[in-house]
Amino acid sequence: MTELATLIKKLAGSETLRRSGEEATRQAAVLPVLAELGWNWQDLDEVAPEHAVGSGRVDYCLRHANQSLVFVEVKRTGAELLQHQKQLLGYAFEEGVPLAALTDGLIWWLYLPTEPGSWEQRKFFTVDCRVQTPENAATALNRYLQREAVIDRSAIERATEELKGQQREQRIRAVLPTAWNKLLTEPDDLLQELVAVAVEGASGHRPDAEVVAEFLLQASVPASQLRIGKKRPAASGTVSVVKRRRPKGVKGQKPVAFLLDGQRHEVSTWRQVLVGTCNLLAAEASGSFVQKVLSIRGTKRSYFTTDAESLVRPLELKSGLFVEGNLSANDCVRVTSRVVRAIRGTDEAFDVEVAS
Question: Is the entire prediction scored with pTM above 0.85?
Fold first, then answer.
């Protein structure tokens, strides 16, 4: 284990750090991490504290050859970071600084301030020392904040590549449903032949081309609206589809299933909709799931955390995180939709069924 990984492991397990204020976070966590990354915090020309930007100040400015390279803003461990990113990125954009980090000593949000888009869209990576292994966290910090890599701009090039990759994936996921529907409504001969061969192999009978075309056209309708064969009744009545964007929401209604990519998953509570969807997406997104959902929050609280005691009704996920279960029916659906959008860029593949 490297010295940086050892330090991260120590910080992640420190209860004293969690109870301390912002100054302690700077002295015990941030400055030691910067030192391990090659920055000489004792040289005020290299690590400039309380760096003035216009009428404001940023906690640290990492510099080389009289150029500002990285802005680092520090908050006390456990503080809510979201409300501070606008100010930090505004300062960095104003001075043309290519990299910025917002941290509470354990969580590091990394940004490309001069890229286009919203503040959130400029965040390209999250290092969470509470969740990631010390080795993985150390590797990520070295990749983007190590002194020599920042100076020779290889860190910035890697950060840009990471951000562009995320944006490319979001665009692809956003148009996949449209592309798929177009393929189904305007099927070419190859697609019809593949379906026909599959049907013949399963049933022993080859379907007519018209039957295949009709089926594909029907399959282009969102899975939640398909009604093929008999309706399956729910225990308390007939199953009906409730679109998540319906203004009245799902208050007072009982869920029977949620749908993801057309696959139906039976449930009996709205919390099961939230947890079930999260677990499926965590398996799909692998390591990126944690960093993408940790920033999902309401106006006053985070919905996801590694600390069960910080939640009113913690629900454990397979990813190692906990999600707040003290939510209304509408909030469960709303948070679930936000999770799907965070992972895929769109929530078009998610829907719910209720008993009526």
Answer: no
